[in-house]
Amino acid sequence: MGSTRPLGAPRQRRSLIGTLARTVLAGGLALAVVFVGLPWLVGQQLEARLHDSLEQGAHNAGLRLADWRLKRGLRASDVEARLVADTCISACTAARFSGRLVHGPLWAGRTGVDLGLARLTGRLSREAGHNGPALPGLPALRVAATADLLGTGRVTISAPAFETAIIRASDTAIEARTPRLAGAASHADLAFSDFGRRLGVWRVEMPRLVRAGATAGQIGVRGLTARGDIQAQTLSMHLQRVVADDGQGRATRIRDLAASLAPADAGRQRLAVDADRILLPDNQNAALTLEAVGNRAVFVAGPRIAAGWRARGGLAGGALNQSGFYDETVAEALAAADLEAQMSLVAGDERLSARLILAAPPDLGGPTNAVDVLSALDLQARAGLSQHWLRRLAARARPPAPIDDTERVIDRMIEQLVARALIVRDGPARYASRARFQDGRLIINGRPRPEWRSIAQQLQAAAPGL
Fold first, then answer.
1. From CA 376, how far away is CA 29, in angstroms rounded?
2. Phi and psi of 131, rounded to 5°?
3. Distance CA 287, CA 94 (A)
4. Whole-model pTM above 0.85?
5. Which helix (H) or strand (E) holds 244?
6. What does the buried/exposed string (b/e) look like for 31-68 if buried means 16 or more CB atoms within 10 Å of the residue's CB?
7. Which segments of 49-91 are extended strands (E)?
8. Which portions of the chain are predicted below pLDDT 70?
């Protein structure tokens, strides 16, 4: 027995090895649980946050989240969302997003393993509504977004170059004669924090966008760059070139147009537009300045009314004769709108100036027609222009006449406008006009115009046939 090895020595080694094996196995199982379970937990939290972020972003853009579907998986989820204008009634033009949300904290990236909260990729496509035009050649936008573990990230949207026909439901013309829309590859991005609930700095770059008419004329934009900060409520935009051509030898060309939007006093915002390199159709060089100060309601009223107009079929669909258009769209868009705007266009000794003040009540009282809407507004307007430009406008509006009688016809038109006090002389070779809507009464240059109601009603009734 004295030569026997100490009892238990091999067992101690085997026990130590077993302990290490069990520790490694337990650690591996723990890592597996974390690796599998953590993405599932992250996916649970992301579902509500992504929905809230999309809903908030849609609201800021005047849209509404009409449909939302998320099919959650273990490490990724499939997302479907449909956005429409917030004034949409039914069968409206929509933007549909289809994508995949990869849950963090780890996923395979282009160069290895990436660390973060989530990665979203997908496509944003346009769906034509019942009254909206079809754009068969418009490609889907590519969307990509990532968020780090602190909930900070960036969304990028890219669009390839495209060219498409603009086909309306009522069109019967062949595709070669339909209007066309073409654009160069474009890019946009948006920074966010707080898991997408706090939107920040954004940027858009669009090198070229052209809309050509079915037979003649076009409007084109080149070199558009825009940037802004949603939290600071600021925006700046620059256009290298804008061309509006009627296809009949008359074109207006603008170079280096700049615009900005920034906070003003009393919670309002100030919009400023400046373009000092404008070439008018008669080859006159001109400069344009515009400044508008108003609340948010007035700056988003235009897009909201336009969306409601399209949703109800526009002019051909009889939108002007639908009471819901005024009550549900126009009244809601203009509620509490507040605006002061002025502009001037100067070309040498010629000048056009205008000023507008608008105040709308918080409740327009359920209007059912254009007369009801105008009666609820407090509106002041003033316009002045040189005699030369007034004659040019009269020449375009004059009825057909022999060339020899053109000047005499224009003279008579201006004399009639002066006699009816629709315009007044405002100094040498200059005319002006002042109008005021208040308490349902229209006053032009100091004279009440009670006939405005019947004129508005007649125009509204005749609009679908125009």
1. 71
2. -105, 0
3. 38
4. no
5. strand 234-245
6. eeeeeeeebeebbeebeebbbebbbebbeeebbbbbeb
7. 63-72, 76-85
8. 1-44, 106-112, 131, 169-177, 214-216, 398-405, 463-466
